Amino acid sequence: MARNPYSFESGVTLVELMITLAVLGVLLAIAVPSFNALIASSRVSASTNELLAAMAQSRSEAIRRGQRVVLCIQDPNNPGQCTNAGSWEQGWMAFVDLDRNGTPGAGEDVVLASPAQGGVSIPAQNGQRTAVYLPSGRVLDPRTIRVCSPSTSLSDNNRARDILLNIAGQPILTQPVVASACPAP
């Protein structure tokens, strides 16, 4: 049987396949670092937003209930309890502090609990491991909590977010302008 010179054969040659794979490899090499930066930035933003929401909810509960509400670092080995060790990235919880002792006990409702935050560092600066909200919504001790990314994909100016908890109990999000805002990765 004679071959028709006008018929088209489907398929690709080995050279075409190699060129396609080379172009795909170059595109991936360019795209992967930007995806790492996007993921790191998303982790910092998500953890910051969760902590902001926890502060706002704790303040709201203190006002609504007319009771002290304590937001504290959660003990990873004993859920439902606060700890005096570690840092905020291991999770946090808020409870109504009826007996004003700073630790959750019988009859004191846990208002919220958040699991550990992966991929970020939220140090308890100056030993500040609790935020106590008064029935008026004010806090006993204003502070700044810094959320940091250990990722080398982000520039120094984009690796940190600060949450300023003012005396009125309102959390305010800021971005530090100091390049050394977080420890070097």
Uncertain residue ranges: none
Q: Could you report the average pLDDT, rounded to the nearest whole number?
A: 86
Compute the CA-based radius of gyration: 26 Å
Strand content: 15-25%
In order across it, which strands form the biggest sheet? 3-2-1-4
Shape designation:
elongated
Helix content: 25-40%
The biggest beta sheet is recorded as: 4 strands, antiparallel
Number of helices: 1
**Structure summary, number of beta strands:** 7
The H-and-E topology, N to C, reads as HEEEEEEE
Distance between the termini: 70 Å
Q: Given the helix and strand composition, which structural class is it?
A: alpha+beta
How does this structure look, described?
There is one protein chain. This protein has 185 residues and is an alpha+beta fold. Helix content is 28%, strand content 19%. The chain has one helix and seven strands; from the N terminus they run H-E-E-E-E-E-E-E. It has a four-stranded antiparallel beta sheet with strand order 3-2-1-4, with helices on one face. The radius of gyration is 26 Å and the shape is elongated. The mean pLDDT is 86.
